[in-house]
């Protein structure tokens, strides 16, 4: 929504990082499916307003650089991959994965300014990811219970929302809206845990199933008396949701929401469904069934949530006690580190 609207009567509360379009926090941002960049292929993408070139060298590793050649500014993606280098189409300057120029055909001397910003990359959950710095302090976030396991991954079609991704991400911990929007009348208690570096925070909400309506009674018969789910936030741009924890019959279901801010004050969201790989033919079908269950659970909530997040000018002026998870989330985001892709960094 337009942040300039109603400024005289409803001035927006401005925060350091939270809901701030000028700041891109350090974190892992999704680029494209792994299959989109094959051996010896290069392609440029706009990620968080930054144009970067992704290429796969002869060693099969993915590398990422600022897209524009420092010589005259040609997009390196229209060039070619030469071994583990990328060579500009215009004058054939060649750069390695660290952004350093290795060859200029017309002369042996390489200018000091013949270099590019390079970025850490990862291939995980079926996608290529980029970190807005040469090295990343941690890998792409994982579910604790799925670490060191073979996974089955299915991703859905990405979509957009008309608000900042920090707002979209709060949806999973807004216990009040489960009752008002989704008619899930579950009173939940909050517990949270933050990792040592402060870039990951886990919100766990749990409570007993009410048994007042017919639907609630059926749900408690199938799932049990207690319900719990955890939302793990990583770097303020990645949400890892685990539902169906501590229920009967159904193992926990896992889904990831990868958020990327777009230049047009919109957010791109990539849903990814994940389960562990199970042995044998029966295991194959169980894993696929759980992925379908995960998708159905997501779609059950998605439409109603979209009505909110496509029509919101977020402004937390009258906070209630029940909004404690939201307050803690905003505080968590505001202590994250701005990246070199932030507007304030460009201005400085």
Description:
- With 348 residues, the chain is an alpha+beta fold.
- The protein has two domains: 29-131, Rieske Iron-sulfur Protein, CATH 2.102.10; 144-334, Naphthalene 1,2-dioxygenase Alpha Subunit, Chain A, domain 1 (Alpha-Beta Complex).
- It has helices spanning 165-169, 175-180, 214-223, 280-309, 324-334, 343-347, and strands at residues 29-33, 42-47, 50-56, 62-66, 80-82, 85-87, 94-95, 101-103, 118-124, 127-131, 151-155, 159-161, 189-194, 200-208, 226-234, 238-245, 253-261, 267-276.
- The strands form three sheets. Strands 11, 12, 13, 14, 15, 16, 17 and 18 form an eight-stranded antiparallel β-sheet that branches.
- A hairpin with a 2-residue loop joins strand 2 and strand 3 (50-56).
- The two termini are 28 Å apart.
Features:
2 domains; Rieske Iron-sulfur Protein; 8-stranded antiparallel beta sheet; alpha+beta; Naphthalene 1,2-dioxygenase Alpha Subunit, Chain A, domain 1; 6-stranded antiparallel beta sheet; 348 residues; 6 helices
């Amino acid at each position: 929504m337009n942040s300039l609207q109603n400024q005289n009567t409803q001035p927006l509360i401005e925060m350091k990082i939270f809901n701030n379009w000028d700041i891109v926090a350090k974190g892992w941002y999704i680029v494209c499916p792994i299959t989109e960049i094959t051996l010896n292929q290069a392609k440029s993408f706009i990620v968080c307003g930054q144009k970067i070139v992704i290429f796969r060298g002869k060693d099969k590793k993915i590398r990422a650089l600022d897209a524009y050649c420092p010589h005259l500014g040609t997009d390196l993606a229209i060039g070619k991959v030469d071994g583990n280098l990328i060579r500009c189409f215009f004058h054939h300057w060649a750069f390695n994965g660290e952004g350093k120029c290795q060859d200029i055909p017309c002369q042996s001397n390489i200018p000091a300014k013949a270099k590019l910003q390079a970025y850490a990359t990862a291939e995980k959950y079926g996608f290529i990811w980029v970190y807005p710095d040469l090295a990343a302090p941690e890998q792409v976030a994982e579910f604790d219970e799925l670490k060191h396991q073979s996974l089955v991954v299915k991703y859905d079609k990405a979509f957009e929302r008309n608000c900042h991704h920090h707002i979209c991400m709060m949806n999973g911990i807004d216990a009040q809206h489960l009752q008002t929007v989704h008619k899930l009348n579950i009173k939940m208690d909050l517990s949270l845990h933050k990792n040592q570096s402060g870039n990951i925070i886990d919100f766990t909400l749990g409570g007993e199933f009410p048994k007042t309506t017919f639907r609630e009674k059926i749900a408690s018969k199938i799932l049990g008396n207690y319900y719990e789910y955890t939302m793990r936030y990583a770097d303020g741009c990645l949400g890892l949701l685990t539902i169906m924890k501590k229920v009967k019959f159904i193992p926990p279901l896992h889904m990831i929401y990868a958020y990327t801010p777009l230049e047009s004050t919109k957010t791109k969201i990539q849903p990814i469904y994940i389960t562990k790989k199970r042995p044998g033919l029966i295991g194959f079908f169980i894993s696929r069934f759980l992925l379908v269950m995960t998708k159905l659970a997501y779609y059950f909530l998605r439409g109603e949530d979209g009505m909110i997040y496509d029509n919101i000018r977020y402004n937390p002026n009258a906070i209630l006690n029940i909004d404690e998870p939201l307050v803690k989330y905003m505080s968590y985001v505001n202590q994250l580190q701005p990246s070199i892709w932030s507007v304030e960094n460009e201005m400085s």
